Amino acid sequence: MKVRINKFLSEAGVASRRKAERLISEGRVKVNGEIIKNLGTMVDPEIDIVEVDGKVIKPQRKRYIMLYKPCCYLTQLGLSRDGRKTIQELIKDIPERVFPVGRLDYNTEGLLILTNDGELANRILHPRYKLPKVYFALVEGKVSVNTLKRIRKGAELEDGFAKPDNVRIVRYEGDKTLIEITFHEGRKHLVKRYLAFFGHKVKKLKRIAIGPIKLGKLSPGKWRDLNQGELTQLFKAVGLKYTPKR
Ligand code: URA
């Protein structure tokens, strides 16, 4: 069956669909020996030979992984420029080229999904599919009931209006408050900026769920494959159907 070239490349784990389009525009992609520049080019993975920078790209087995990113790791593959640790070293035993779906800040910990399925990744991130991302935020100060009401109503941040899908106070910890907060979008530093707007600096942030996928009892720094039940639910949550051979 023929698929669009950018879909083929993202499903082969080469790059996200958008990045794949950039590779095509830069003339780095060949199909059957010819450089192609047309983003609409269709290929048959069973027949056509696709190359990127001269390397033949084979369709990969789909891999869906959850990682507990500990604090103080960069969400990027490969080495960092400044010597900081990256999640690469936590997933080095995975042969497929999985990439992180979205990012967590260097000092944020918790659930990160990694996959070589570009279509699923796009949908997990796209606000249109409203997939909730749930965080535990330990903030400075005691969040009052009044402030909680304001937090629930939304606020105008420097890059536009933001409103959580859900917020609750889990407990007070001395002069700090543990809050559970859910957003279905992933703007940079959103949770930290949002709570700081209400005067509560985030001291510690942990993502505990992405849609139906829960961090559960996974230990910091460890990863595991998502199981069939989790994949069925995750695909459904973003309007796709999970078939094990995808
Ligand atoms: N919001 C943040 O502020 N940081 C993260 O890492 C994730 C969400």
Question: Care to describe what's here?
Answer:
The chain has three domains: about 5-55, Structural Genomics Hypothetical 15.5 Kd Protein In mrcA-pckA Intergenic Region, Chain A, CATH 3.10.290.10; about 65-130 and about 210-235, 2-Layer Sandwich (Alpha-Beta Plaits), CATH 3.30.70.580; about 130-210, Alpha-L RNA-binding motif (Alpha-Beta Plaits). Helix content is about 20%, strand content about 30%. The strands form four sheets. Strands 7, 8, 9, 10, 13, 14, 15, 16 and 17 form a nine-stranded mixed beta sheet that branches. The protein has six helices and 17 strands. The protein is elongated, with a radius of gyration of 20 Å. The two termini are about 15 Å apart. The chain is of the alpha+beta class. It binds uracil (URA). Uracil binds near residues 108, 189 and 192.
Labels describing this entry:
9-stranded mixed sheet, Alpha-Beta Plaits, binds uracil, 6 helices, 3 domains, 246 residues, 4-stranded antiparallel sheet, alpha+beta
Could you name the CATH topology of the largest domain? Alpha-Beta Plaits
Q: What is the CATH architecture term of the largest domain?
A: 2-Layer Sandwich
Low-confidence parts: none
Beta content comes to: 25-35%
In CATH, what is the homologous superfamily of the largest domain? Pseudouridine synthase I, catalytic domain, N-terminal subdomain
Give the C-level CATH assignment of the largest domain: Alpha Beta
Number of domains: 3
Structural class: alpha+beta
- Ligands bound here? uracil
For the secondary structure, the number of strands is 17
* Average pLDDT reading: 94
> In which range does the helix fraction lie?
10-25%
Largest sheet: 9 strands, mixed
User: How many DSSP helices?
Assistant: 6
Which value, in Å, is the CA radius of gyration?
Answer: 20 Å
**Helix-strand string:** EHHEEEEEEEEHEHEEEEHEEEH
